[in-house]
Amino acid sequence: MLPKQSLILGGAASGKSAFAEQLVMATNAPRIYIATAQTFDAEMEIKVQKHLNQRGPDWHTIEAPMNTANVLVDLPADAVVLLDCATMWLTNQILAESELPAAQEALLESLAACPARVVIVSNEVGLDVVPDNALARRFRDAQGALNQVLAAQANLAVLVVAGLPIVLKGALP
Which of 31, 51, 55, 117 is labelled catalytic? Predict the structure, then answer.
């Protein structure tokens, strides 16, 4: 059985979202997709549409690029939620100049309080070169810190590399 909270990490285009979707689809529970991406250009619109088509009609999608914490606490206990992704959520918070520690604490608390099982997708950004500008370094450091607290709170943590899952914590169902 899928644990209460799972974290799926990976680099860009590593297969992490597809793996997370497979975990959710292996359950017989109602499926909820919390989308944190915002579509500011045609390329992103195409990517979002591709993900919608991949998931199919059996998913209920909630767009929550900023207020993810508020959405999580009101979900039904019998559902399985795919939060895709923590990286876009963090990007949205940083670009909106949110009070990041408070937003992160609210997200962690809502994940713990969420009555549904939650699978969180996030990018592992610490395996690349040191960014050349202050904003990118701030983001990289914030993403690393967020991933660490998400992993500490999760019952299952998996790193996906080249489409292959490597279990870091817990056991796959």
Answer: 51
